[in-house]
Amino acid sequence: MKIRYNEDEKVVASLKEALEKKDGYCPCRVARIPDNKCMCKEFRDQIADPDYEGYCHCRLYYKEK
């Protein structure tokens, strides 16, 4: 298993800037709750699934098998 950034550098730069503005909370989520702190709970759960391969919700990270 490997987790990497999106291959599109513009997407990564934009999302990192948005994360900074939201104090590390997912820019795609409204609620500022612990589950939405980057790396969000949704993606951590996806990482735990050995069969999952794909992007996190905001497309910053990609999990490879």
Labels describing this entry:
single chain, three-stranded antiparallel sheet, 2 helices, flat, alpha+beta, 3 strands, 15% strand, 65 residues
Total strand segments: 3
Q: What Rg, in angstroms, do the CA atoms define?
A: 12 Å
How many domains make up the 3D coordinates?
1
Shape: flat
Distance between the termini: 5 Å
Mean pLDDT, rounded to whole units?
Answer: 96
Order of helices and strands: EHHEE
Spatial arrangement of strands, main beta sheet: 1-3-2
Low-confidence stretches: none
Strand content: 15-25%
Task: Describe the overall structure.
This protein has 65 residues and is α+β, with helices and mostly antiparallel strands. The protein has one domain (2-64). It contains 2 helices and 3 strands, in the order E-H-H-E-E. The chain has helices at residues 9-21, 41-48, and strands at residues 2-5, 54-55, 61-64. A 3-stranded antiparallel β-sheet has the order 1-3-2, covered by helices on one side. A hairpin with a 5-residue loop joins strand 2 and strand 3 (61-64). It starts with a strand and ends with a strand.
Question: What topology does this entry show?
Answer:
Layout: E1 2-5, H1 9-21, H2 41-48, E2 54-55, E3 61-64
Antiparallel strand pairs: 1-3, 2-3
